[in-house]
Amino acid sequence: MHFDFRFGPERPVSPDENWLTVGAQRVRFHFVRHRRARRYVLRLRPDGTARVTIPRGGSTAEASRFVHKNAAWLQQQLLRHAAEPARSRGWELGTKILFRGEPVCLEPATNGDTLLIRFGTETVRISGAETNLRPVIERHLWRLAARELEARVLELAALHQIRVERVTVRNQRSRWGSCSRRGAISLNWRLVQTPEFVCDYIVLHELAHLREMNHSQRFWREVARLCPNFAEAEKWLKANAGLLR
Predict the structure, then answer these.
(1) Coil, strand, or helix at residue 67?
(2) How far is the C-alpha of 38 from the C-alpha of 215, rounded, in Å?
(3) What's the rounded Cα separation, in Å, for the pair 142 and 138?
(4) Which residue in 128, 27, 125, 133 sits closest to 70, CA to CA?
(5) Residue-wise pLDDT tens for the chain (245 aa)?
(6) Helix (H, G, I), strand (E, B), or coil: what is residue 241?
């Protein structure tokens, strides 16, 4: 069995969509039922539609009330989403990216004939032909994550006396981490872009799964025991979900 930092298999609810006027915009939202979800969750998807997660035992009527109650948050996300197309997905000199939870600027530097890019505490060598810096910067961040995350997992596992067999760092597009019953934990390299307390939360979330391979109340009690500030970390992840795109 395999668990990741998302809810389990999703099952559309019928009727599976509805409409809501948010500001001057009509938004289509889809109801999706997750048997492992603990609460209602509203997310704006990249295509501009919204998804409403219905927990086990929940109803579409309550989900609709939840959407209306969070209309202001949805409007804020729509404004952010509308601004995204104006920003290039490529990175160039002067682009700001998140690194360890802080916005840092990609700045030029030289060392003799070597072209360098600096951001935060990092320095990356580039070729003069590169106009989009994103691929080389992301490769550097991935290598950095591969060095740091395994050590942090093992450190926290030893602290809480949880056995971990293997740690891998991958390029997941829709999740921050996952684990298996065999003690294998996989983490997203983009965790190096998050604050330390958020990164630790993801690690502890997966470690908690090695004791409770589910999303039951017992699991969430274990998460709260291992990581008392997990709600703050989840709030940060929700606000910065665009890091996975």
Answers:
(1) helix
(2) 8
(3) 6
(4) 27
(5) 444 444 333 444 444 457 777 766 778 878 888 877 888 988 887 667 788 899 988 998 898 889 888 888 888 877 776 655 434 478 888 998 999 999 999 998 877 677 899 999 999 998 766 778 999 999 999 999 999 999 999 999 999 999 999 999 999 877 899 999 899 999 999 999 999 999 999 999 999 999 999 889 999 999 999 999 999 999 999 888 778 76
(6) helix
